[in-house]
Amino acid sequence: MPIAMLTISDWDSAHERDKMIESPTWSEIESTIRALNNENLNDLYLYPEKNNTETYLCIGGGSGRYVLTGSIKNQSFPTLIDPDRSSMSSTQLVVGGQLGDYPSNWVMDLCTTLQTAKAFYDGSGFKCGVKWQTA
Q1: Is 77:31 a contact under the CB 8 Å cutoff?
Q2: Into how many domains does the chain fold?
Q3: Which of 3, 14, 61, 66 could form a disulfide with 113 if both were Cys (CB 3.0 to 4.6 A apart)?
Q4: Angle at 82 between CA 36 and CA 11, to 5 degrees
């Protein structure tokens, strides 16, 4: 199975409740992404390895606007960017239970988010053919 664990965060006021699904199907991941609402459901995590929480893809936001970022062994931190859009303007999204301003070239539509998540799920990880900015 390409993804060992899906973690879904549900923010009730300032409290976070996590739901974990072991060996999720693509259908479960896709429906979870579609359920993100930029309110209480505003982030999920895909872990390729069951006992490795230092490598993951996080998808945050919702309602048609998403940020995709992650960690590789807690050493590099890739963020999906659209190189054709400016980073000068910003978009407000709720990620991790907090409202934040994100560069507009970090904010993706649902189609791009699903395509990237599917490639990550299929085993490509962060080498899935999209443009990542790494910190």
Answers
A1: no
A2: 1
A3: 66
A4: 20
Burial 19-36 (b: 16+ CB within 10 A, else e): eeeeebeeeebbebbeeb
Task: Report the predicted TM-score, pTM, of the whole model to 2 decimal places.
Answer: 0.93
| CA-to-CA dists, residue 79 to 1, 71, 76, angstroms | 24, 9, 10
- Token digits of residue 71: 């960690």
Q: For residue 3, what are the CA distances in angstroms to 35, 80, 98, 109, 135?
A: 19, 19, 26, 22, 24
**Which residue, among 35, 31, 55, 59, has the nearest Cα to 45 in the 3D structure?**
59
Q: What is the pLDDT of residues 84-123, one digit of tens each?
A: 988 889 999 999 999 999 999 999 999 999 999 999 999 8
Which positions ≥6 away from 51 have C-beta within 8 Å? none
Q: Which domain holds residue 20?
A: 5-134
Output the DSSP codes for 64-118.
Answer: TEEEEEEEBTTTB-EEE--TTS-SSSEEEEEETTEEEEEEGGGEE-HHHHHHHHH
